[in-house]
Amino acid sequence: MPHPAALPHDPDPTTAELVAARPHLSMHAMDGLLMDGVPLNAVADQVGTPTWVLSAGSIRGRLQALQAAFASAGLPARVHYAVKANDHLAVLRIMAQGGAGADVVSGGELQRARLGGIAPEHIVFSGVGKAEWELRLALEAGVGQINVESAEELAMLSGIAAGMGCVARVALRINPDVDAGTHAKITTGRADNKFGVAYDSAAALYAHADGLPGIEPVGLALHIGSQILSMTPYRAAYARAAELVRDLRAAGQIVRMVDCGGGLGIGYRDEPAATPAAFAGAIRATLGGMGLELAVEPGRWLVGSAGLLLASVVLVKATGNRRFVVLDAAMNDLLRPAMYDAWHGVVPLSAVDAVQPTSPADIVGPVCESGDTFARGRALPALARNARLAILDAGAYGSVMSSTYNARPLAAEVLVDGNRWSVIRARQPMEALWAGETVPDWLG
Ligand code: LLP
Questions:
Q1: Which of 103, 133, 215, 222 has the highest CB neighbour count under 10 A?
Q2: Which protein residue has the closest C-alpha to ligand 1 atom 7?
Q3: How does residue 9 score in pLDDT terms, banded at 50, 70 and 90?
Q4: pLDDT at 4 over 70
Q5: HSE, side-chain direction, 13 A CA sphere, residue 178
Q6: Per-residue pLDDT, 191
């Protein structure tokens, strides 16, 4: 079922409205679309397209806003950035400098977080299937916490930690059986999702963990899904966590902390975006006043709106009654529309294009699948060959989900900071696509 935000309803926001709603973007009469102080046409001239562009200032501002919301709610909550949203080392450096820790879900993300400068004690290792080598790596690194999702994983971790002569600080991830009201593919807190320990068996497993060698249970974790715009499911899930904390404490267990997960949504179209103040309020109303240390692990909210994908028009073709604008970016770059029917704003880079009369256009990539469609029926001006467009809000789950499908090299990445900008990942050279491949001699 498509996400409600993907269903046709009110007219789409205009280019002017999309730009006005994003403080790091502006339209300059001569230079066209700017990110902070940088004309995006200058970036495209020098680096080509498709290219991801990220605003450092936007990421810093969002992190500060989140931290400030928790501080003003009087909640001692640490922010552990969910590395999966955008794992570039420069992004991780910005997070480290801003005082964020990291939530990682693989050995690779753990290494990245450390290379980005995040101290191991501020790293939480989450995930439903951590391999033995990954648990070992996490313990060797001295990560602050491991979120355990099953009895089987707990037994595995106990064996590894005891064998290494160390103690793993463990939070038990519970499955609160709450529907987050988001797209089915990114809902994680329902009983039929693979994540977490069933709510009803969590108390017994926590008590069991307490007796295991190499394990120190410190609290609970939960994460009910992603792109969540209503506080109702959060409140329901956190209320269940609070109830479990009270039960565990009544049974004599020590519960020091609750990891409240991430999932805070952003406004891609014109949805009322979730606010950090509302998020902090939902946590305070349910888990406040219990003497708990608290942590959150947002990804999308911190980096999603900070990034965009620059693309150029390869050609425009009319087929049947539709106008297809074919870009040089495709689903292998930004997968979200194909995968989740996600709506992303598409705006021209040229200030002249931006004010021309519009007509409906389907914005597509060149990949040989009809799902390679960024937007349908979008009100856009006549666009000539080589005209440039920006696909908005692509900072989270954009470059990290890219592939080289159709033998398309990974796009370049650029970081903007005020008036400065740098290439932070070169466009992948074509030869890199086959560099790791060998053809066996015996094939002749
Ligand atoms: N913590 C855990 C345990 C998670 O699984 C996730 C995301 C997060 C935190 C961060 O969630 P966020 O704050 O970013 O919503 N590729 C999808 C989103 C997948 C989210 C997976 N888990 C998309 O493009 O919408």
A1: 103
A2: 226
A3: low
A4: no
A5: 23
A6: 85
In the sheet where 38-39 sits, what is the strand order?
Answer: 25-28, 32-35, 38-39
Phi, psi of 360 (to 5 degrees): -65, 140
166 is annotated as an active-site residue: no
- The pLDDT confidence band at residue 180, using thresholds 50, 70 and 90, is confident
Residue with tokens 């954009």, as numbered in its chain: 398
Task: Tell me the C-alpha distance between 413 and 426, whole Å.
Answer: 7
Q: How far apart are CA 125 and CA 436, in angstroms?
A: 30
pTM: predicted TM-score of the whole model, two decimal places:
0.96
Residue ranges of domains in the chain, CATH in brackets: 7-55+307-394+398-431 (2.40.37.10), 73-301 (3.20.20.10)
Ligand 1 centroid–CA 46 distance in Å is: 33
Percentage of the chain exceeding pLDDT 90:
91
Tens digit of each residue's pLDDT (9 = 90 or more) over 134-145: 999 999 999 999
- Residues 219, 255: contact at Cβ < 8 Å? yes
- Structure tokens of 313? 């028009």
| Pick from 372, 347, 427, 435: nearest CA to 12 | 347
Can you tell me the mean pLDDT for 281-289?
97
Q: Best substitution site from 183, 226, 227, 402 to test ligand 1's pocket, by max atoms within 8 Å of Cβ? A: 226
- Helices of type H across 294-356: 300-303, 336-340, 351-354
What secondary structure does DSSP assign to 308-368, as a single string?
A: EEEEEEEEEEEETTEEEEEES--TTT--HHHHH-----EEESSHHHHTS--EEEEEE-SSS
Mean pLDDT score of the chain: 96
Probe residue for ligand 1, chosen from 125, 266, 300, 403 as the CB with the greatest number of ligand atoms within 8 Å? 300
